[in-house]
Amino acid sequence: MNAYSQYQQNQILSASPEQILLMLYDGAIRFTRQAMYGLEEENLTIFHHGIQKSMAIITEFSNSLDREIGGEIAENLDALYHFMIRELTLANLHKDIAKLQVVERLLVDLRATWGEAVELNRNQPPLGSQTAAIKESAQTRPAEYVPFSVSR
Is the pTM of this model over 0.70? Predict the structure, then answer.
């Protein structure tokens, strides 16, 4: 194993689930762009390889959704992933770069959204510190304080 492969493997093994998700989006985007490049260069091997890899990642996104916890959001994501798989299938059948561009744009947008969510989550104080802040504020309230919901 060369040094670069070992570095990549270490990056993946030490990554958080959120970082792995973002890496997978990066891979799906890269493979979709690779398929576009293959089509532009009339290299069907590169084209098919890019589509296959992108479809595999998107399929895994769909398969890993937790519909019980995710509810409507998970269902909407699943529909979007299935749409992307259909577009990739049609792009493959008809050698249609416009369909690849649609998928690429969706992946870039989803990747940006997930990136923002990961960043917001990273900047949240730990749950224990939130609990401590709530307890502290409860101790500084005036003795006659009654929460609005109780006073009705």
Answer: yes
